[in-house]
Amino acid sequence: MAGSLRIWIFTVFVVGLIDSLEASMRPRVSFPQGSLERGLSVYHSSTVKNTTTLLLSSDANTLFVGARDSVLSLDVSQPDNITLKDKLQWTPSKDNLDKCKITSKTVCDCGNFIRILQFLNSTHLYACGTNAYGPQSIIIPADSLKARRDKKDAKNCCPYSSTQRNTATIVDEELYTATNIGYFGDKVISRCLSKGKRNNLVLDSEPKLLNAPVFISSTHISSEGKILLFFTELGDLFGDLFVKSFTVSRVAQVCTDDNGGHRVLQKRWTSFAKSQLVCQQGDELQFNVLQDIVTLLDDDSPDNTLFYGVFTPQWSLSSGQSAVCAFSLGDIKVAFSGQYKTFDNLNCWSRHSNGDGKLGKCGLFNDTDSVLNTVKKTFLTEHAVRPVGNKLLLSSTKELYSRLAVQRIRAANGQKYTLLYLLTESGFLHKVVLLDKGPHTIEEIQIFKQPQIVKNLILSSSKSVIFVGSSEGVIRVPVSSCSVYPNCAECVLARDPFCGWDSENGVCTTVSSTRPNLQQDVEDGNVTEQCTEFINTAAGPATVTRTAQLNDIVVLPCQSRSRLAEVTWRFSDNSVVSQFPYMHQANGSLTFRVTPDTVSTYRCVSEELGFRQTIVSVSVTLPVTPRSFPYPSQQHPDITRDSNKVTEMEPIPKDEILFDETEPTEGKKTAWTTGTDSGSGIQTRNNPMNSAEKDVCISKKSYYAEMVSFCLLFVICLCLFIASVVLWRHSMRCNRTTSEKKPKDSETDNIWQTELEDKQTPSS
Ligand SMILES: *[C@@H]1O[C@H](CO)[C@@H](O)[C@H](O)[C@H]1NC(C)=O
Ligand SMILES: *[C@@H]1O[C@H](CO)[C@@H](O)[C@H](O)[C@H]1NC(C)=O
Ligand SMILES: *[C@@H]1O[C@H](CO)[C@@H](O)[C@H](O)[C@H]1NC(C)=O
Ligand SMILES: *[C@@H]1O[C@H](CO)[C@@H](O)[C@H](O)[C@H]1NC(C)=O
Ligand SMILES: *[C@@H]1O[C@H](CO)[C@@H](O)[C@H](O)[C@H]1NC(C)=O
Ligand SMILES: *[C@@H]1O[C@H](CO)[C@@H](O)[C@H](O)[C@H]1NC(C)=O
């Protein structure tokens, strides 16, 4: 109990800390699904479901997709078109299907979900599917999926389940796989398809080798001759009742040269070792549950190869929390060559110094029985692997990140930046650049609307696209779209290492070696420094004139595309529009009632990274006298303080709707109406007097007219009230059944209302 309380208090404290970092993770620009500016291409077919297992050809022109009951190859070489090239239909055998339908909880699981799809060699693919709980594998030529091939039983190599996670890597035509292998969810790490005299290997059955693992990912480290596997499992290093089910994230290794021991550990891994991955900053909350991890190779110095993992905490107050940590291969090697823990016969962990440094090395399969007997029980490293720099690369209290891709690219000034692509559980892709100052989320793009149980993400650096596989289809997202930034300021403020401003052609364009001298400032987004020409010539938007009646409520919309910009409304003399009598909406709109005091020119100014620009400029005026109108207009309005700003008020033709749709925010309807246009929506709440005053000359007499109409209305209302009371009492007397009373009442209300409106109309 004390333990749980401690953790809870701790969590509260840490969440508070993380909150302050939250602003830095807010995406600068957001593109909803279907946005034309940030076009996605989609492969979707009504006959192909669960397109979740993805494999990209080395030239990135073909995407292989493992779906339910089929393997597809898609032509992704066209920039805005994904087409089906080839398809292997692969349904479960009838026997399996019948058996499955009896035993399975849901008939939906009784399909052949393709869960492994890998290149066996340069010409052939290895695929395996769940086959209605009877996993099968197949080897097929990549360029003709339909070619007839034998299907093989794949019991120890391929997942049973359509949803449990698994991972597989093929090295030299041998398959290293980590998966659940039976109906009861047994878990194995094995080598299948072993060549020549080499043994197929599995993990020994010693306790604690694996404890309810969830396999996340695996990768071949050729410089070490090892496969690294990443997974989570239940930890048991704590005696406390509460933390018994504490999840730990792991990196494990097996060597590709392993062939199992001679007498001890026959046909078992002799090179298996595991270590803990800790995604934690100092002593703060640990993000202990690994969700996805990817490798960023460093060919020049392999030890600097980095593994970027996205983690979530096991316990959190709000469900949406995640963090990204990077681990270096060098640190992982240090952990595996250091001290170990032995799980002895007394069911206790004890320390093993690894004095001869054999543990964690490859080649032990050829060693003596006594060494292998030690290996058998000594597989957990004493020291955990901590993130590079002992810190989180980013964390978010709002978003539950579940998949990621990573890329290092060269910016216009030649400096290299790391970009993360993070898929949120809610279906958005966030693009984040890691800067010295911290992460900056350049944009978010909505990929799918429904949360997905199974989804995968792969990046093609050469084609600069991301593919997302989900049950809704395969979606291709270009990593950048510089043309969405219309001017130099926007292009520089985006701080997108892909995009720079080409001042010669006046476009925001993709950075490449053939286009030097692009204006870009990824670190600071300093517009004044980068866009001197632009700033000298930019005039800002033209002032739009709005005409409105006295007492109208006007709404001036102002939307900055950037969600990081601070938006303020200002008068033409640059003073800030006050809180009262104005209403500043959260979405940037300014709302106020038109009075002689509020007739003015308003500018919506956004400020971001020290750069100010006017987004809209609106001059709110009262209607001007139409010349043809015969009314004398010599009198001054009587409630005028600033006569320059207020035009004299004259009746205007009833049908003249003062509408202006030249808003920069397209698609959003602005409501600008006179009092007579009653069907124009909620933004206009006219004073009821307006309609009455239309036909009366507004000058000194206007109050009289208002009073008369007010009295008239009051009398009508009073009559209606009395009438409804009488009716209500009448109906009470007639009908005592309460169930029927309510609808009747509301019906009569409606009748009165329409009658009221009818009566009002002629008076205007
Ligand atoms: C397969 O796709 C369907 C919708 O097409 C979805 O309801 C189901 O959850 C998916 N199953 C898996 C295992 O992804
Ligand atoms: C997509 O590609 C096919 C075949 O290459 C072509 O017929 C079709 O017109 C293309 N569609 C679009 C929208 O480009
Ligand atoms: C790839 O493997 C397949 C199946 O084992 C084999 O038929 C083919 O010759 C191999 N191709 C190459 C280039 O080694
Ligand atoms: C295994 O050890 C023997 C001698 O102990 C040696 O001859 C042989 O080459 C070793 N095999 C491997 C694969 O290292
Ligand atoms: C801004 O919010 C106000 C009130 O919440 C709403 O009336 C208005 O339509 C919104 N404007 C835009 C452009 O979303
Ligand atoms: C932008 O650069 C200019 C000139 O180098 C400098 O004076 C200014 O302080 C910078 N602005 C910001 C916000 O860093």
TrEMBL record:
User: Where does it live in the cell?
Assistant: Membrane
SMART domains in the cross-refs: PSI, Sema
Where is it predominantly found? membrane
Q: Which superkingdom does the taxonomy of this entry point to?
A: Eukaryota
Q: Where is the composition biased (Polar residues)?
A: 671-687
- Give one GO biological process term: semaphorin-plexin signaling pathway
Membrane spanning segments where?
707-728
Give the signal peptide, or none. 1-23
Q: Which InterPro entries match?
A: Ig-like_dom, Ig-like_dom_sf, Ig-like_fold, Plexin_repeat, PSI, Semap_dom, Semap_dom_sf, Semaphorin
**Molecular function, one GO term:** chemorepellent activity
Q: Where is the composition biased (Basic and acidic residues)?
A: 738-747
Positions of the UniProt region annotated as Disordered: 664-687, 737-764
Per the record's keyword annotation, is Magnesium included, yes or no? no
Record bears the keyword Flavoprotein:
no
Entry GO CC: plasma membrane
Entry keyword set: Disulfide bond, Glycoprotein, Membrane, Signal, Transmembrane, Transmembrane helix
Q: Domain named Ig-like: which ranges?
A: 541-621
Stretches assigned to the Sema domain: 26-479
Give the protein family. Answer: Belongs to the semaphorin family.
What protein name applies here? Answer: Semaphorin-4B-like
Q: Which organism is it from?
A: Triplophysa rosa
